[in-house]
Amino acid sequence: MRSRVLVLFFFLAISSAEQRPSEDVKEKCMKDHPVLLHYFSWADYMVLAAMLIISCLIGTFYGFFSKKQETSQDFLLGGSNMGTFPMAMSLAASFITAIELLGNPAEMYKQGTQFWMTCLAFILVVPITSCLYLPVYMKLRLTSSYEYLNLRFDQHCRLLAGGLYMLQMILYTSVAVYAPALALSHVTGLNTYIAVTLVYVVCIFYASQGGMKAVIMTDTFQAAVLLGSLFLIVGYGLSREGGLSLVWQVNQQSERIEFFNMDPSPTVRHSFWSVVIGGTIYWTSMFCSNQASVQKYLSVKSIGQVRTALWVSAFGMIIIYTVNFLTGMVLYNTYKDCDPLLAHHISGQDQLLPLYVMNFMGSLKGVPGFFVAGIFAASLGTVASALNSLAAITCEDILQGLFKMEMPARKGAIYARWISIFFGALSFALVFVVERLGSVLQVALSFNGMVGGITLGLFSLGMFVPWANAKGAITGAITSLVIVLWIGLGAQIATLNEQIHLDNKPVSVNACPCNITNIISNDNNGEAYFIYKISYLWYTAIGCILTMLIGVGVSFFTGFQNPADLDQDLLSPPIASMFHIQTKPCANNVHGITNFGLELDDEKSQAESTKSPKT
User: Fold this and answer.
1) Closest to 471 measured CA to CA, from 398, 541, 555
2) Domains in the chain, CATH or no CATH each
3) Which of 185, 436, 508, 523 could, after both became Cys, cross-link 192 (CB 3.0–4.6 A)?
4) Any signal peptide, and if so, which residues (predicted)?
5) What is residue 31's predicted lDDT score, i.e. its pLDDT?
């Protein structure tokens, strides 16, 4: 017995002796090759502080020194006298979130360049918005876009869509601020809580004091900061890696250069069909049924200004996505043989770009601060637009629509200002909930696309199907919401249970200085149900199509709406033309149109022009 115990101790001693040197060697190697080579300097903090101070000064000017905003329209719509270019920049800034700025380069690094084809969706969505949806909004000029659903269907549809939007934006803004701040804190050394608090304090201040004017002008400044930081990073990266041709060649050899993956399967995360068709429907929901977007359209006087702004914002987003695409190629060129995530240098894919900036550009004083300022600018733009739109929905749909409160015109701006402060504080408080429920992050991002599809389906049903009734609309929306949530949440659970894995392009840690074993990443899908493998880019399309199909079906069984009883201003111009309404061709009116693009027949012109859509 004693001999067996001695033998056991002998083998344990040998095994521990074998493990200890390797662990000691790796620990010593990590000291000799630290993950982070540089940290934030005083110059970086100064650059970041300058961006935040300028944002506050813009809010101060429009809140205290510019023309006083007394009515809710002044506060929420900027008096409808904003400039075309600032509105276009603000529109683009509100669509580009900090999550995307950090996530898109990493997405292209891991998945390849197929996702860049979403730029085609930006081009396709502009004529769709300009010709089909925009004339209705500009004709009615409703502060809350969801008031349209009350006019076309009933109050239940209005409250459902408005409630979903409020839930979506409160949750999404919390994630859109916390997730990037968390990623930056791991790499730059910035304190997460300080970063989040600064973003919310600055944003709540200028959004609540300056209203839509401050939001749009601050977004314009922040968009310039954002673009400047992106161009600086990609320019330095391409120069460091030997130029665009060499970077392109290296990525092409790894089969990352891919634009026409024509696989028709809906389970392919990024194919030509999911990115272009699914992406077009997603961005249509953002441009055509999102309160923040519609509210900015109404901040200018003419529909021609909006159409020009749509093209400017679309090309602005194409530039940003192209820079992200090139940045992802630079990241692969740098880390192809030593993937930081596989080597456990970072804990999340969204930390990849900050790691690159700190290690390779950290010696350039002020440059990391400029990069972080661009990320913060994206967070500020997202939150500011959300707060302004939430104030509009609360004033119009909840206080006046649901509770029938009479809001004095002189006090409208005061109500809106305090409401935006309330939602800012609520969103900030939810950050600490999101922090403790890590799985909420991805759910919130997916929820954005799910809700967008339902809302787009409701507006499309109202504008394009004059026979649809309120029962069909509400039934279609609720049913499709349940189905899309089942698919989306089920996919998240399957991913957490490791039943679904992304088909990432191969990377290696073979060249990592402290690597002991070579690892090559090339994941395959697990054993989840087919429906949970559907690409997230199809969620909006599924929600929209189901809402419309079910809405038409239920309307048929419950009795179609008589189109003759509808106010024709509630229909899209091509549909209105079928009911004796003459519509000017959209392409001929890019610089402005008479009566917002709708000209009535001579026999109805007098009656229609005096009719108010709100009665």
Assistant:
1) 555
2) 47-610 (1.20.1730.10)
3) 185
4) 1-17
5) 66
